[in-house]
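task queued by scheduler; priority normal; single chain, no ligands, no partner chains; default sampling; output format set to structure tokens
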Amino acid sequence: MSAQSQPAALSAPAWRQFTFFDLAPIRDIHDLGSPPEIFQVHIHGSVYQLNREFEIVRSWLAHAGGRVTHMVERKGILITLGEEDTARHPFLKVWDLEHTDNKTGLPALLRSTKVQSGNRPHPVSTIALSATLAYLAIGLGDGTVLLYRHLDQSIFSGSTSLSALPKPRVVHESAGEPITGLGFREPGEDSPNMYLFIVTLNRVLAYHASGKGSGGQPTVVSELGCGLGCAAMDGNSGDMVVARDEAIYVCGIDSRGSSFAYEGKKVAVHTHRNYMIIISPPIAPSVTAASATVRNLAAKSKSTDNAEITKLTVFDLENHFVAYTGTFTTGIREVFSVFGQIYALANDGSLSCLEEKPTSAKLDMLYRKSLFLTALNVAKTQGLDPGEVADVQRRFGDHLYAKADYDGAVQQYLKTIGHVQPSYIIRKFLDAQRIHNLVTYLQELHSLGRANSDHTTLLLNTYTKLKDVSRLDAFIKRESARATDELPFDLDTAIRVCRQAGYFEHASYLAKKYERHEDYLRIQIEDAGNYKDALSYLRRLGTEAAESNLARYGRAMLNNLPYETTQLLIDICTSLEPLMFDDDEPKGEPAALTRQPSTSGGPSYLSYLALNRNAAPGSSSATASDQGPVAPSSASTTTVKPGASSRQLSVAHEQELSRTATPPPPTPTITSASPVKPTVHSVKRPSPRLFFAHFVDHLDCFVSFLETVALKRWGQTVDAIANGSVEVESDSNALEEAERQDQVSVWNTLLELYLAPGPTTAERQANQDKALRVLRSEGGRIPYDPTHALILCSTCGFTQGLVPLWERAGMHEDILRFWMDEHRSSAESSEESAASEEVVRALRLYGPTHPSLYALVLRFLTSEPALLRKHEEDVKDVLREVEERGVMQPMEVVRVLGRNNVVGVGIVRSWLARVITEGRQAVNVDQQLIDSYRGETQAKLKQVQELSDPDRPRVFHVTQCAVCQGQLDLPSVHFMCGHSYHQRCLGEHETECPNCARAHGLIREIRQNNERLVDQHDVFLQEVREGGFSALAAGFGRGAMNLARLEDAVV
């Protein structure tokens, strides 16, 4: 080959060239000036094992009298092929590098056998061993391929025979076509089978070595073969790489794949990770060569001789560029990969290492040349972590952004999500002209679940500013991430932004779909004004959810749908079953009720609501005044099951509902004790008091609500007994005290509403009649607070209601004074009145239990001549009762009757005569008692004086013992009290008369108690307040006034 034709043959491909490797010579560790001497010993049949410093660890003679031609190692097992003088055929030997022979200390020889195909010997051209040691393929120079199956089982079977190897199978024969390359394609995800690539000078074949369909003839995958050493397996893809003079071909198991144009002669190829190393034959350098590397070498060389050089090129087949190009003046004998590096052994024995530059240095080199796409491919090929790859993509995006390629930039930025702060990218697209790119980025940010509330706000604002309803629909209606079951955006933010932008449909869709009940109702009521839909939604939520939301929106709902909302509140407070709803209920105006708008009066719950008691009857809302109050609705036809979820209810709610109140059925009446049907339900009824404040402007609906709740929940009504009673269901889970308080609150408020001034006299009278029926209810049938009712009736001037309240409170004197005042009022207006008869009737009713009322009525009946003439007999009856019951002293009666000139003596003559006669008799009896007490006192004093005189003898005439009643004899004991006893009948040391001791002891105890009470002045004063003069006299009697005792005075 001439020097002029060689450069043309070595023309490089139109690939970019980089210097990603540095050539570093390997020095001998013992002589840094010389390379390590290795690999030359194979020609003597020995094998040398080297360490990382290329020092010989151990060596042994593998093939005596011959040479080693091929070696391959897997999992600590070394297979050598070599020639020996003792045999014509090559020898195959298997060595165990991890176990040594006990005698020699060298690796154990496991197997040794000849390699032959036929009678004539043929040299071994190539060898291939699978990663699992299961298959071994040997290619011969005559075109034969021998395949050893289950080699691993044979090696580790435990057999001590060196020749115990499986019989090889001839899988290919091609006369005249030597085998130039072999390689196994290991099973993987693409194919679970093992394949063997066979390369000859003219063809590339694939043999199915294992799996279904194995054992057939090899199939031709390429009609282009290569020379010896120019075929190698690509470890990443599992394909066979074939290097020819015109190009590089990649062959798969089915057909030839991609090819790479690279003209020039090639003597060897080698693969290392994703690189392919090509060694070109020696050429003479020339300044006219097509290769820049050769030209530079020729220009730098000072010698004029035609010394040949060998070119080594490292290709990156995945990224399509040249990673290194170098020349060797001494030629290259072998290229091999070990310890993760590429080594080149020159013909002169020098060893060089191709040290790959760090990935960061490679990327910097590519950044400087603005080759960002290549840098991205390199980063992925080198297996960088996602964060480092994202940094390359960010740089690529910045580069495109600087070139005003915003669409391309945003595509690169999309791949950095999760690694680059979104704010870095969002700031680049905030300009109005780039808002579409911003939308693209934000959408991807949300789809990957990396967005926060600010990102959601920004994206929705861009949709609304662009008025892109379709993309807004697609965004909010997208499903949640399947892996995490989470929304790809912040729900609260999405609802808020849609509300602020006026997209109420989208906001309500999100709130409804994801069961944000409060947000949905806020949108429908506060924003969209869709009160009917909100009401239907509330009914579907169930009692508990509807209760909490009505507490917030009840007033707004009543202002717009007073009757429907009132009916819902009634159902919530009375039903123990899930709420009912009817999709097919016809629209129409609700039936008018008996109540009209009214205002309040009195300090009660309406006072709490801060109502204007003087408001006009028409002060309520126009809607309420036009339509009238609501009544209990009839039963519905659709029932929400207790177990139905809110999501199911939302699906059922997709159709618009129209619910209006229905005419009320005839109001049933109840007895004082309505039968109660106990039931147990899971629905808890709320307290009606929670909703009182919402009816501030709808008092007509308020009355209907209270009356219906009282009827349905407790069976209480102001109507008279009619055709039966109402069955009510009791909640066994309800607290009795809480229910009682609710009943009192409901009827207190109803009473206040009844007493409020009505628009017409007839209505006012009807309301007052209801109030009277409430106040006159017997047996606690209608519970209310009497004190509150009394204050209310007094404030509203409802005097008719005061009498039953006074009766209930036991204020009988107030009842009499009320009728007395009524009599005086009618007398002043010259009207006939039966108030005096009511006074007499009340006295007859309450007088027997309250005698003090007789004096009050007596004073009243004798206050006027006309009144006395009318009730002369009643006055006599009163005097008789006073006399019999001793209510008043005669002098008090005389003073009462004589205070004016109304009562004559003729009326009371008989009474006075009787009283005087009885008084005289009482005086005579008292005088006789006084004389008797004086006589007894004188006798006692005389007896005391006699007993106290020691000089006065005492004669005892008693002849019987006071204990045994026997004849008294000596010795005997006589006591001054007059009792005598046998001495034997008395106890030892007895110094007191036994008969009188008990009486004397009682008297002493009484006197001791009285003496203790002398200093307890508060007790004495309390007795005087309660008993008057009698208590004072008793105090004198027991010595409470600190007077000296009688015996002290006598002494």
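post-processing summary
- Confidence is low (pLDDT under 50) at residues 1-13, 37-41, 583-681, 1045-1051.
- The longest strand covers residues 91-100.
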